[in-house]
Write a structure and sequence with these properties.
- The complex is a heterodimer.
- Chain A is an alpha/beta fold.
- Chain A has a domain of about 70 residues.
- Helices cover about 35% and strands about 25% of the residues of chain A.
- Chain A has nine helices and ten strands.
- The longest helix of chain A has 18 residues.
- Chain A is globular, with a radius of gyration of 18 Å.
- The two termini of chain A are about 35 Å apart.
- By secondary structure, chain B is an all-alpha fold.
- Helices cover about 75% and strands about 0% of the residues of chain B.
- Chain B has ten helices and no strands.
- The chains are: A alpha/beta, B mainly alpha.
- Chains A and B meet through helix 2, helix 3 and helix 5 of A and helix 7 and helix 8 of B.
- Adenosine-5'-triphosphate (ATP) binds next to strand 1 and helix 1 of chain A.
Amino acid sequence: MQTILEVRGLKRTFYKDKELFTAVNGISFEVKKGECLGLVGESGCGKSTTAKMITRLLEAEEGTIYLNGKEIQNLKGRKLRGIYDDIQMVFQTPQDSFDPRCKLGDGIMESMINHGMTRVKAKTRMLELMQMVELDSGFAERYPHQVSGGQCQRAAIARALAVEPSLIVLDEATSALDVTVQAQIVELLKKLQREMNLSMLLICHDLALVQNLCDRVLVMYQGNIVEEGTPDEVIQNPKEEYTKILIDSVL
Amino acid sequence: MTEKTITIREQKVHKDYTKVKLIILLILLGLLLLAAAFASKVSPFDPYEQDLGSALQEPGDAHIFGTDRYGRDMLSRVIMGSQTTIFSALLLVCIITVVGTVVGIFCGYYGGKLDAVLMRISDIFLAFPGMVFAIAVAGVLSGGLSNAVVALACISWPKFARLARSQVMTVKDAPYIAAAKLAGSGTVKIMIKHILPNIAGAIIVTAVLDIGTMIMELAGLSFLGLGATPPTAEWGSMMSNGRSMLQTCPWVVLAPGFAIFITVVLFNLLGDTVRDVLDPRNSASH
Ligand SMILES: Nc1ncnc2c1ncn2[C@@H]1O[C@H](COP(=O)(O)OP(=O)(O)OP(=O)(O)O)[C@@H](O)[C@H]1O
Ligand SMILES: [Mg+2]
């Protein structure tokens, strides 16, 4: 199977109270085409940091990132913008991920217009995408503070799908939503995965969701990947002590 | 329950009141700006025509604000002066707002060495007492209204640079900026389309509040002979020229002084009202 994303020895440190703190400590993994890879771990273990480094929103200190076989961690300017044709991300806080002064529709169209599409064409495509994520076309004219979290997250997914990326990173895309809306979003993701053969990196701390959606799962603990396998393997016989605690705390 | 309804109603009343205030102020200032723009048509007399025969007349039927020592009609000179004073102040505020905002956005967004250098420069300007520094700069450049504008622009842009910079710092790490990057938008587009609209409120309020200050400071420089030069009708220099007659013919000083007072108050009230209108706590229910 073709590899979409390959990460080798990714590392990042932060200064916390003037002390060096390793948020991500040299992790390696890959995402294959059409695969849904889960990344679970407790709060503060470095999941979002990993996601931001993969999408180049945050600089990695060490390590290499290959996207479709190309090294991307040193790209700049126009070349860097080019990677966003292949990789997209959905953020943890849906409402904050849309500009409060732009309508949702304009937010979804931004990437298409940046690709030189005319406004008319982009609008048609935007309405198609809205339909795909089961949002009424009227929402395109609304501002982020005028819609609910779940509706906003659907719009965010539509925005991520606009450029037809090969990989989409979902950073706790459902954790800010209540349980029923969460379930709807999960159904939507499943549908999109089936229809578009999308690769996904699903970051969350909900093991049930991982079991439901993912082909493979990585368990992260204090910046390291401590376990890897299919969700059933990992949940049924966890090898690491930490994984056991994580499973016990959920079930 | 009742307590809550009352507060909501009070909020609504307050909002309507703010809107009415804004409209009234805009109408008044609109009239003022129209008078300034068409000063030569509005003034009853030629503001530069000397008539020594009717010098220093008291306010009366023919000359509502009286005449100065050359027999020029004060009302016409005040109206003509509004053009000079208000438009120089508006130009000045535009310059410092644009320059300061552009510098501030770049500094706030990129940070690093460029930011450090530009902010140290702005510190130097902010370290001096503004008016003293403006007098020095205007003195070096020699008088003239345009030099007074340059001098005041030099000392006033850092305030806007600081403001814009701090505002940019608060929004640049927001997820929606990251989302714009993911949409493939370049830095300039992100600055113009996503950062500027989100920081514009605070900058506009400061700019409007600064118009009054700038009118005062321009008039101040002119009063000291470092701004507009005679015979140009300008409020500051008109007051300066008349100050020796304050006791004998007070209208020569009071007319331009009153004009400055009214204009500054109007612009400051507008600034306060704009702030109230843009305040997110007032516009929660769109
Ligand atoms: N900009 C930053 N400056 C300093 N420390 C940071 C920064 N970003 C993240 N960290 C630290 O790095 C660690 C990992 O953060 P990260 O956001 O990746 O956690 P996470 O696994 O996504 O947690 P959560 O499940 O709560 O979202 C945390 O301890 C956090 O405090
Ligand atoms: Mg996170």
